[in-house]
Design a protein that fits this description.
flat; three-stranded antiparallel beta sheet; Rossmann fold; 44 helices; AAA_16
Length: about 850
C-alpha cells in the first residue's frame, strides 16, 4: 500500500471490506509513514452528516475562505458554480502541495458528497494526485467513486475477515502471551474475524475480569459485560431500529434458530423482510425448513443483555407457546421450551422438565442441565432425579462442596444416593475412605443390583487409588456375573480397560472402552482410552481423540485432552507446541485438582527435555502441590517427569535412579505398559544393558508395536550397533515418535563415525532432518560425539559448506589449494561423508557448528 501511495506502483489503491475489518487502520499506517518533505498529504473522511453539502468532505483540507476572482468566473457576491468550486479546490490543493506530489487519502469514500467524489475522480483521472482510500462493501457508492476502479484509475483490494490463526496471533500480540485454543475459537466465531469487534470484546472481557491468565496462557471464561464502546460499535452496525424491526431482532436473539413461518406469525412479515434486507438476520433453507438466525453472533449477545427483563420474559414465554403450538417436533425443542419456561417463570410440566434435564445432561450441556435441575428442585417436582443431575454437574464443574450440599439436602439412603455421594466424596474431596464405605454398604445390602453397582464403583476407586489387584478382582466379579445391569458393566469395563492399558495390552484395552452418554463415565473411559494410546505410542490416535472436543464448557474433559495433546506433541519432538498445550491444560484446570497436577507434571517434563531446568523444577513443584492420593493412577507420569527434571538439572545418575525405582514398582503392580515407558527412558539415558532382557519379556507379553520397537532399540543400544540403531530410528519414525527417532539417529551417527563407516553421511543427513523437526530438544542422547576436527579443519569445513571454492578458501586463509583439499579430505573421512554435497548436512548435526553455518547452507 505504501508503494501505491507514493506512486511507485503507478496506481492508487482502494481497500474494501466490512466495517471494523481494519481498513482505516491500514490507511493510517500509510499516511503516518509518508515523508511530508517529499509528499503533500491530503487526508479527509467521508461522513453521512455532510454527504449533501458541496465539497464538505474535502473542506478540512481546503482554505477557510473561498477566494473568488473574475478569472475563475465567480463574482465576489455570486454563488460559486460547481465548476468554479472544483477549479478553486484544484488551485488550493496545488498551492498546498507547493510542487510536491499530492497523495489524497480518503477514508469512507462511499460517504463522499457528490462534488468531492467528482473532484477525487478528476484528480485520479488526470494523474494530479495519487488516491488511496477505503470503502465499505455492501453499501451504495457514488458513481465517480465506483469509476475509480472500474476505469482502472486505482487498484481495489477487498479485505476478508481474520482467520482463526490471525485471531490467535493478534490476541497474543495484544495480551502479551498465547491464548488458550478454545478461547481463541470462541472469540473468533463470536466476532466473525472482525478486528474492531475483537478489540472491543477483549476490552470488555478484560474490564469485567473474564479474561484471565494462568501459567502464561490467557483464557476467556465466555462471559463479558457490555461497555459503552462495545455497545456503540454494535449499535452502529445495527443502526436505528423501528419498533417492528426491533421486535424481529429480539425474538430471533432469544429464539434462534427459528423457523421463518413462526417468526412471521409472531411479528410482522414486512419487518422481517426489512431486517433481512438490512443484513440483521439471515434466512437459510435446509430441506423443507426455512431457518432464521441473527446475521452476527454478537448481535444476539448485546440484544439479550440490553433487553428489559419484563420484555425478555414475555418474549421467552411467547417462544415457548409458539413451539408448543407446532407440536415441538425438533430434537432440541424439549430443551428450548424448558429453558424458556424456566426463564420466563411461566411454569412447566414437571415430567417434561425432568426429561429436559436428562437430555441436557446426556448432551453434555452442563450449564443448562444445572439451570433446569435447579428449577425442577425449586418447583418441588424434581425430587432426587433433579438433585442427582445437579450434584453431578456441580461435581464435574469443580464445585464438590455445593454438590454434597445438594445431596445431603435430600437425606437419602438409596443406592444411587450412596453411589453418587461416594463419587463426590472420593474425586471431589479426595476422601480415600470412600471405597471402604462402599464396601461396608455392600455388605449391609445384599441385593444383586446393590452388589453390582458398588463393586463396579469401588473397582474404579481402587484403581485410581493405586490398588490394581483389588480393582481387577472387583471389576472381574461384575463382568463375570450375568445378572449385572448395563450401568455397572460399563463402569467395570472402564476399570478393566484402564488396567489392561496400564498392564501392557493397549489394543485389548481400546476394544473394551465403550462410548457413554454419562459425562463422568465418559471421562473415566477417556482416561482409559488416552492411557492406552500413550502406552501404544499411537500419536495419530491421540490426535483423533483430542480433535473431537466440542468446547461445551466441560473444562475437566477439555483440560485432560489438552494434556493428551501435549504428550503427543512431546513424543513427536514438537516441544514448543507441547509446552504451550501443557500450559493451556494448566489454565483450563486451574480451578480443579483431579488432572491439574498431571498438567503441571507434563509442563515440567517438556521444560526438562528443552533443558530449561529452572522452569522444569518450578513446574514440578506445582505438580507436587496439586498431586492427590485419590489419583495415584497418574503417578507414573509424575515420576517420569521428575526423573527428567533431575536430569535437566545436571544429575543424570539421579534421574536413572528414579526411573529404576519406578520400573520396579510398576512391575510389581503389574503395570507393565507403564513399566515399558520407564525402561525406554532408561535406555535413552544410557542404561540399555541393564534393561534389555526385561524389555524382551515385556515385548512378548505386550500387544502393541511400540514394545517391539523399544526392545529393538534397547538391544541395539546395548550392543552399540549403529546400523541397528538406524533401523530403530525408522521404526520410531513410522510411529510418529520423532524425538526418539532423533535420539537413536544421534547415537548411530557417533558410532558410525567412530568406525569411519560409509553410512555415517546418510545417518547424519537423517539426524539433521529429524533435529529440524525437533527444535529446542536438549536430551543426553542428542549430544552427538563430536569428531576430532582441528580448529583449521573446522574453519575450512564451514567455508566449504557455505559454498566457497577451495581456491578462494586458500586465498582467505593464506594457504595453498592443495593444503585446503587435504584438510577437506580429512574432514570428509572424520564425518563419514563423500564430498561437499553432504558436508553441510553433516555439520548441521553438530550442535556447536550448526549455528555457525551460513544461512544459504
Amino acid at each position: 500500500m505504501f508503494e501505491a501511495a507514493t506512486g511507485a506502483s503507478g496506481c492508487g489503491l482502494i481497500f474494501g471490506g466490512a466495517p471494523g475489518i481494519g481498513k482505516s487502520r491500514l490507511l493510517r499506517s500509510v499516511t503516518e509513514n509518508l515523508d511530508p518533505g517529499r509528499y503533500a498529504l491530503v487526508a479527509v473522511t467521508g461522513t453521512a452528516a455532510t454527504a449533501g453539502l458541496a465539497l464538505a468532505s474535502l473542506a478540512p483540507a481546503l482554505p477557510g475562505d473561498l477566494v473568488v476572482s473574475p478569472q475563475n468566473g465567480v463574482g465576489p457576491n455570486a454563488v460559486a458554480s460547481h465548476a468554479g468550486l472544483v477549479r478553486w479546490a484544484l488551485d488550493a490543493l496545488h498551492r498546498l502541495a507547493a510542487g510536491r506530489p499530492i497523495v489524497l487519502a480518503v477514508d469512507d469514500t462511499h460517504l463522499l458528497d457528490p462534488l468531492s467524489a467528482a473532484l477525487v475522480h478528476h484528480l485520479a483521472r488526470t494523474r494530479q494526485a495519487t488516491v488511496i482510500g477505503t470503502i465499505r462493501t455492501g453499501v451504495p457508492t457514488p458513481e465517480p467513486v465506483r469509476a475509480l476502479w472500474i476505469d482502472d484509475l486505482v487498484d481495489r483490494v477487498d479485505l476478508g475477515p481474520l482467520s482463526a490463526g490471525d485471531t490467535a496471533d493478534l490476541l497474543q500480540a495484544v495480551l502479551g502471551g498465547p491464548v488458550e485454543a478454545r478461547s481463541v475459537d470462541r472469540l473468533w466465531r463470536l466476532t466473525t474475524g472482525n478486528a474492531l469487534l475483537l478489540r472491543e470484546l477483549v476490552t470488555a472481557a478484560r474490564t469485567s475480569g473474564d479474561l484471565v491468565e494462568a501459567c502464561g496462557i490467557w483464557r476467556w471464561t465466555g462471559r463479558f459485560a457490555l461497555t459503552p464502546t462495545l455497545t456503540d460499535v454494535v449499535d452502529h452496525r445495527i443502526g436505528p431500529l423501528e419498533p417492528a424491526v426491533r421486535d424481529v431482532l429480539e425474538l430471533v436473539a432469544f429464539g434462534a434458530p427459528l423457523g421463518l413461518p413462526l417468526l412471521v406469525k409472531a411479528t410482522d412479515s414486512a419487518a422481517a423482510e426489512q431486517a433481512e434486507e438490512r443484513g440483521l438476520i439471515t434466512v437459510t433453507r435446509d430441506d423443507r425448513r426455512t431457518t432464521v438466525r441473527l446475521a452476527h453472533p454478537l448481535y444476539g449477545e448485546v440484544v439479550r443483555q440490553r433487553c428489559p427483563l419484563t420484555r425478555a420474559r414475555r418474549l421467552q414465554a411467547d417462544l415457548a407457546h409458539l413451539i408448543e403450538a407446532t407440536g415441538a417436533r425438533r430434537d432440541d425443542d424439549v430443551l428450548r421450551i424448558a429453558a424458556w419456561r424456566v426463564d420466563s417463570d411461566t411454569g412447566t410440566d414437571p415430567r417434561r422438565l425432568l426429561k429436559a434435564v436428562r437430555q441436557a445432561f446426556r448432551l453434555h450441556r452442563l450449564p443448562l442441565a444445572a439451570r433446569l435441575s435447579r428449577a425442577a428442585l425449586a418447583d418441588g417436582g424434581g425430587g432426587f432425579q433433579a438433585a442427582e443431575v445437579l450434584a453431578t454437574v456441580l461435581f464435574l464443574t469443580d464445585r464438590p462442596g455445593e454438590a454434597l450440599a445438594v445431596l445431603d439436602a435430600q437425606s437419602g439412603s438409596s443406592l444411587r444416593w450412596r453411589c453418587l455421594r461416594g463419587v463426590v466424596a472420593y474425586w471431589g474431596h479426595f476422601d480415600t475412605t470412600a471405597p471402604d464405605a462402599l464396601a461396608d454398604g455392600r455388605r449391609a445390602h445384599a441385593r444383586p443390583v446393590e452388589q453390582s453397582w458398588t463393586r463396579a464403583l469401588e473397582s474404579l476407586m481402587r484403581l485410581h487409588h493405586g490398588e490394581p489387584r483389588a480393582a481387577r478382582q472387583l471389576a472381574g466379579e461384575v463382568l463375570d456375573d450375568p445378572a449385572s445391569p448395563p450401568g455397572p458393566r460399563a463402569l467395570a469395563r472402564t476399570a478393566m480397560a484402564h488396567l489392561l492399558a496400564a498392564g501392557g495390552a493397549p489394543a485389548r484395552a481400546r476394544a473394551m472402552v465403550e462410548p457413554t452418554g454419562n459425562p463422568y463415565l465418559g471421562l473415566a473411559a477417556e482416561l482409559a482410552h488416552g492411557t492406552a494410546l500413550l502406552i501404544a505410542g499411537d500419536v495419530a490416535g491421540i490426535d483423533k481423540l483430542v480433535g473431537t472436543d466440542d468446547g461445551d464448557g466441560f473444562a475437566v474433559r477439555s483440560g485432560y485432552r489438552a494434556v493428551l495433546a501435549a504428550q503427543a506433541a512431546r513424543l513427536r519432538g514438537q516441544l514448543a507446541a507441547a509446552g504451550q498445550l501443557a500450559a493451556e491444560a494448566c489454565a483450563l484446570l486451574a480451578d480443579g485438582r483431579v488432572y491439574a497436577g498431571l498438567a503441571h507434571a507434563e509442563r515440567a517434563h517438556v521444560a526438562a527435555l528443552c533443558g530449561d531446568a529452572d522452569l522444569a523444577r518450578s513446574a514440578m513443584a506445582d505438580a507436587d502441590a496439586r498431586r492427590v492420593p485419590a489419583m495415584a493412577v497418574l503417578d507414573p507420569w509424575f515420576e517420569q517427569a521428575r526423573a527428567w527434571v533431575v536430569v535437566a538439572g545436571g544429575d543424570q545418575a539421579g534421574g536413572v535412579t528414579i526411573l529404576r525405582r519406578l520400573a520396579e514398582r510398576l512391575g510389581n503392580d503389574g503395570f507393565h505398559g507403564h513399566e515399558l515407558l520407564a525402561l525406554l527412558d532408561l535406555v535413552r539415558l544410557g542404561a540399555a544393558g541393564d534393561v534389555a532382557r526385561r524389555l524382551q519379556w515385556l515385548a512378548a507379553y505386550s500387544d502393541n508395536q511400540l514394545a517391539e520397537t523399544v526392545t529393538w532399540y534397547a538391544d541395539a543400544m546395548a550392543r552399540r550397533d549403529g546400523p541397528a540403531l538406524l533401523t530403530a530410528m525408522e521404526r520410531f519414525q513410522r510411529l510418529g515418535m520423532n524425538l526418539y527417532a532423533a535420539e537413536a539417529a544421534a547415537v548411530a551417527v557417533s558410532l558410525l563415525r567412530a568406525v569411519r563407516s560409509a553410512a555415517a553421511g546418510g545417518a547424519a543427513e537423517e539426524l539433521a532432518n529429524l533435529l529440524a523437526g525437533c527444535p529446542g530438544a536438549r536430551t543426553p542422547a542428542l549430544r552427538v560425539r563430536q569428531p576430532a576436527l582441528t580448529n583449521r579443519e573446522r574453519e575450512i569445513a564451514l567455508l566449504a559448506a557455505g559454498g566457497v571454492a577451495s581456491k578462494e578458501i586458500a586465498e582467505r586463509l593464506f594457504l595453498s589449494s592443495r593444503t585446503v583439499d587435504n584438510h577437506l579430505m580429512r574432514v570428509y573421512a572424520k564425518l563419514g561423508v563423500s564430498g561437499r554435497t553432504e558436508l553441510a548436512t553433516a555439520l548441521r548435526a553438530l550442535p556447536d557448528l550448526a549455528e555457525r553455518l551460513p544461512s544459504e547452507a
